[in-house]
């Protein structure tokens, strides 16, 4: 199987490239493993960029516009317009925003505004592994508030973690993931309101990573954390990078709630040097003019979400598939297969399929894998076939 042919289906961005064409890419997804491995691990889509992004970047190159980014507000303005149209959210005030290198680095900068060395940062595992690494690198303590059995926020776990984090009157924060990576849970307004109530009761400052916000699939609705009552002193981080496949051209926007504006104003000027000029250009174009492309991607992801469930039911019914409400990431409980704590290692060695091991996602990750289904249906089908063969199915 040297490569699946492109289908010619102009309506599905995930079917425009053959596997051979994808293997010419030099990004981490395609260079970490040998050529006989199907990579369904890191959060990168198998799609060409939106036309609006391509035009913006090639236009900048044609002008020789390759210098330092300006300190303007075009990106934040584009995000504000997108938020109003897509989410009906008018709370993203451009004057309460700051450009940052990317969502994870920006989250850390927000945490530094409201906590100090040795203070606690609560996270809800299983969760995006850099939540642990970045927090600990900044000399903060991680306190866990694990998700419940359905991969959703657990109020009792949060309350216990908030109590421990704030013990002794120390400053503390909660690094929220909304929508949640890896379970794909899209937190409801009621769930987020409960978070805000608990956070205020225990003096916890909330920093919300909302990088997957544009990738909410049919059946769920994204709720910005800053839009719920009691979240006025919180921060959120947003970006076009995940939804438009722009991880290689970094840029993000930090947004402060009304009661956190003065703290955001204290952000060191040097932090604004983080995003690249091309990143700002690309993300602004995506938000302004890439809506049709995003709609096509969301349709394709919804189809793949359904297909993955059918494939697993047919070939690997022992796997518990937590049908994601958002993102293009599937959290698969493989414990019934008896493959030990790291089934990803088995699927890689025996099946030549690269998935993300659940172990780095923290408590609740052992025995799980994260699968990226932002690929063609053909690649997805072959990957599940290989996974089944790896366990003798």
Brief characterization of the structure:
This protein has 393 residues and is of the alpha/beta class. The chain is 37% helix and 13% strand.
Characterization of this structure:
The protein has 393 residues and is of the alpha/beta class. The protein contains 13 helices and 13 strands. The protein has helices at 19-22, 28-31, 51-62, 74-87, 103-114, 130-137, 155-165, 189-202, 261-264, 277-289, 291-315, 343-351, 377-390; strands at 38-39, 97-100, 120-123, 141-144, 172-177, 204-209, 235-238, 252-256, 320-322, 329-333, 353-354, 356-357, 368-372. The strands form 3 sheets. A 7-stranded mixed β-sheet has the order 2-8-7-6-5-3-4, with helices on both faces. Helix 4 packs parallel to helix 10 (277-289), helix 7 packs parallel to helix 8 and helix 11 runs parallel beside helix 13 (377-390). The chain is globular, with a radius of gyration of 21 Å. The relative contact order is 0.17.
Secondary structure topology:
Layout lengths: L18 H4 L5 H4 L6 E2 L11 H12 L11 H14 L9 E4 L2 H12 L5 E4 L6 H8 L3 E4 L10 H11 L6 E6 L11 H14 L1 E6 L25 E4 L13 E5 L4 H4 L12 H13 L1 H25 L4 E3 L6 E5 L9 H9 L1 E2 L1 E2 L10 E5 L4 H14 L3
Parallel strand pairs: 1-11, 3-4, 3-5, 5-6, 6-7
Antiparallel strand pairs: 2-8, 7-8, 9-10, 10-13, 12-13
